[in-house]
Each structure stands twice: as C-alpha cells, then as structure tokens.
Amino acid sequence: MATTEQVIGTWILIALYGAAILYFVIKGAMSIKSMKDYAVGNMSFSPYFVGMSLAAAMTSAATFVINPGLIALYGISGVLSFGLFFPLASMVSLVVLTKSFRKYGESVSAVSLASWIGKRYNSKGYSLFIALLSVLLITFIVLILVALTKVFANAINTNEVFTLAAIVIFVFGYMMFGGANSMVYTNAIQAGIMIVVAVILLSSGLEYFKDGISGFFAKLESIDPRLVQSTNESSPLFRDFYEIIFAQIIVGIAVVCQPHIITKSLLLKKESDVNRFLVTAIVVEILFFAVVIAGLYARIMFPDLTVDGAALGNDDVIPTYVIKAFSQGWVAVVVGLFIILGLISAGLSTLEGLIQSLSTTVTFDIIKPIFGGKIGSDKTYMRLNRITIVLLAIASFIVARDQLLNPKLSVAILAQNGVYAYFSIIFVPIVLGIFGKNISLKAPLAASVVAFATHFGVYYGLPLLVNKWGFSFGYFDIYLQGAVRNPAIAASSAIVLSAIVGLLVHLVTKQKQSVTA
Q: Any idea of the CA torsion for 462, 467, 468, 471, to the nearest 10 degrees?
C-alpha cells in the first residue's frame, strides 16, 4: 500500500503530467489538416527527438514493468534473454532495415506499414490482408494498459478496473486529435524522463553489491539456486539456450517490423538525418533494455515474492518494488514519484504509437479500399479515424479487464503471442521488399501464409497433438507442454520456415520467368 504522502504526490504528478500532454496534443492538433498529417506529421522534427521517440516506442512498459517481473521470478536466464540477446538482435536489425525502408516509403508516399507493402508489391488485396492482421497488435495495447493500471493502482491505492477505465478514456481520448505531430514531442519528453528513471532504477540496488558481484549472486543463490543459472528449467520461457539465444535472436531481428517502430523513419524529412536518428535511438535503447536488471533487485527485496503476506503477481513486482524501495523520507518519496512518472512514460510512449499506427492502418488500409468510392472528403476519414480509436478503446478495455481479473503467468504471454504472430507474418515480405528486385507477389504472400499457419499451428495445434492425442516431436515436446507456452518458439519457427518458403518460391518464380523470356 502506498503511503498518504505517495498518494497525494502521485495525484499532483498526474495532474501536471496530464496538463503537459494536453498542451502538446492541442499544439499538434492545430496543424493537422488531413489524415496524412495525422499519420506521418507535417512538421520538421529533429532527428534526435525522433530517435528518442523510437527508443521509447521500442522498449515501453514491457521493458520497464512486465519483463523485470519475469526476471524476478526466473533470474539470470531472463536477463540473458531479454537484456542481452533480444536487444542486440533488434538493434542490428533496426540499422539494417530502417534506411532502405525509409527510402522506398518516401518514394511512394507510404503512411503505414500495410500501405508500404501494398505499394511495394502492387497489390491492394495483399495490403488489405496485412492491415486486417494488424488487429493482433491490440494484444500489445492490452499489455501496456495492464502495466499502467498496475503502476497507477499501486501508487494511489485505487481499484484496478476503475483505474483502467480512466486510463483508457484519457489516452485514447487525446490520441483522437494529436497524431504524429504531438506524438513525437510527447514521446521525446517521455524518453527523457525514462532515461533518468532508468539510471535511478539501475542504481537502486547498488547496496546489494557491497560485497561485489559475487556477493550479489550469493544473495540470489541463497533465495533459489536457479536464479543464478544461465538456464532455468522451471521457467516456461528460459529453459535452454534454444529459447534464450536462438529464439530471441530470431524474434529480435523481426521485432523491428512493427508499424509503430519501422515507420518512425518516415517522420524524417531529410536523408541526412537518418544516421543521427539511429545513433540516438540505439544509445538510449541500450540504457532502457538494461532496466530489466531491476527485477533481480526486486527478488532480493521480496525473496518469497510476497508483501505483507500477500503473493505478488508477476506484473505487480516492479510497481510494488518502487513503492516499497522509495517510501522512507521525503527525498526517497520524491524520487519514487519520479520513477512512477517514468514507468507511466514508458507505457504511454508506446501506447500512443500503437494507437496512432493501428488507427491509421484501419482507416487508410481497410476502410478506404473497401468504402473509398463512397467517401469523398478527407474530413470524413478523420472522423472515421476517431470512431476507429473509440472502437479500439472498447476492445482493449474488455481484454485488459479480463487480464486483470483472471491473470495467468503474465499479460506478456498474451501480448507476445499476438505481436510475435504479426511481425512473423510481415517480416519476410518487408525484407524481400527492401533488398529484393523484381519480386513476384507469390513469394511474400506464400511466406505470410506459411508464417501465419506455422505460428498458430505451433502455439495451439501441436500442443493439442502432443497433450491430447499422444503425438511426439522429440525434444521439441518440452516447448509444447504446460498451460503457459513460450510464444517466441512459435514465432521463431514461423519466421525461419516462412523465410525458407519465401526464398524458394522467389527462386522458382524467377527461374520460370527467365525460361519464359
């Protein structure tokens, strides 16, 4: 439970923070004249601001709140997975893919990922297919809403469902008007706050290192020897190096292919800004990804993962750690309030990007192709975009409420299953579109279909065969058992298989074309 001082301070913080956001939203909304302005902005942004905006969007509440909770449960194996191999792969992929994606996106005036793919392969049907699948990103919105609810409810001692409703109304409400113009600036400010908070969280456990690194590991080992092992057999996510290294590298490479991440480069107006944008994003991301270490501090503070006799759920660990660690003395309370602000910023930065990109995709790539002949003015599209945001808010609230009332291991499992499926489906089409020449539609389409079938087949179909009908896939069976399964296994399998199929179809098609010629 938060103290009276913490509750009062948080309310003051919420009021000031909310006022600041509304200022930038109103400022940005005044310059929006069309849906394209809402999607990619009509202002000239500093590459450093856009880079910070990207770093904040890539890391989010998952990195600051949810993933550290999993590391508190499972230890060093989680740090290797979420704090080393996944970030390394994602940052290398970001550099490789961003420049070429932006060049083509600029040349065809793409405003969304689905429109980029549709124009690259000259197929409105394929664009619509990708746009419809983007609905899977609602699962990520749900993760962030749950994380924000946990932070707020712990900080001001309020009912979680009512807190969730207030967050949904406020955030989805202002995103109906702000768009890219306001989002870049709010994200940059949020990233600045997150930088300070990341440093505070990383240093909050320095007292545990008074006997050196070996002493720190000894504390963890005394709680549970598995916490200091490079693999953790009791975990559904970090059991072996296939899960920790291979699956996370594959997923990390593909994670960049999300609309709120890869399309950030389209906000840059000059090619010369790209390098500064990337350097800024990567430097800030390195710091943000390191925050998962705070999960180890929380485990030392709560060795049996209980507080005041009540068990801590995975998604409650970091909010509770912050309230507990920064509750003694007014200086600590002020610092704790600033950390709460940082956790809120981590969630809002990505949530804004997801709402903006997903609503743009629905409006531009689903509604416009289907009903475009009956809709004349751009103002009508703006109104439809706002209606879309309202519908997204309702759907997200319903699913997030269920996650709060009926939690499993973590909301991360739901989010990963949806988001990983999405970028598994679009990864090969984007890579072929960026680096390939004379690519037939057959190759990316085949890759997408195979990825879709493989991801959901591995996550839902194969476990049914193994657990209900007694089939066996050898060592792979360990990934198919239990109520909680690792979405990274399904996604990495989908990405690898879809890449093989996509390349084979491309080579066969290219060979047929050369024979015909």
A: 60
How many residues would you count in the chain? 517
Return the CATH superfamily for domain 12-407. Answer: Sodium/glucose cotransporter (1.20.1730.10)
Dihedral, CA of residue 347, residue 351, residue 353 and residue 356, to nearest 10? -160
The one-letter amino acid code at 479 reads Y
Q: Please tell me what DSSP assigns to residue 306.
A: E
Q: Give 312-365 pLDDT, tens digit per residue.
A: 888 889 989 988 888 777 777 888 888 888 888 888 878 887 888 888 888 888
- Residue whose pair of structure tokens reads 């996106």 in the numeric block: 105
Q: What pLDDT sits at residue 497? A: 97
Measured CA distances, 490 to 139, 234, 243, 256 (Å): 16, 19, 11, 18
How far apart are the C-alpha atoms of 345 and 198, rounded to whole Å? 12
Cβ neighbour number for residue 353 with a 10 Å cutoff? 27
Long-range CB contacts for residues 230-236, cutoff 8 Å, separation at least 24: 230/76, 230/77, 230/80, 231/77, 232/74, 232/75, 232/77, 232/78, 234/74, 235/73, 235/74, 235/77, 235/78, 236/409, 236/482, 236/484, 236/485, 236/486
- Model's pTM, two decimal places? 0.88
Distance CA 491, CA 455 (A): 5
Residue 376 CA to chain centroid, in angstroms? 35
Using the predicted structure, report yes or no on whether residue 425 has a pLDDT greater than 90. yes
What residue segments make up the domains of the chain, in order of their start?
12-407
Burial (Cβ within 10 Å: 0-12, 13-18, ≥19) of residue 99: middle
8 Å CB contact between 297 and 219: no
CA 326 to CA 496: how far, in whole Å? 45
Question: Which token pair is 181?
Answer: 């113009």
The pLDDT of residue 376 = 63
In our burial notation (b when 16+ CB lie closer than 10 A, e otherwise), range 302-334 reads beebebeeeebbbbbbbbbbbbbbbeeeeeebe
Burial state string for 422-433 with b = 16 or more CB within 10 A and e = fewer than 16: bbbbbbbbbbbb
Report the alpha-carbon distance of residue 480 to residue 458 in Å, rounded: 8
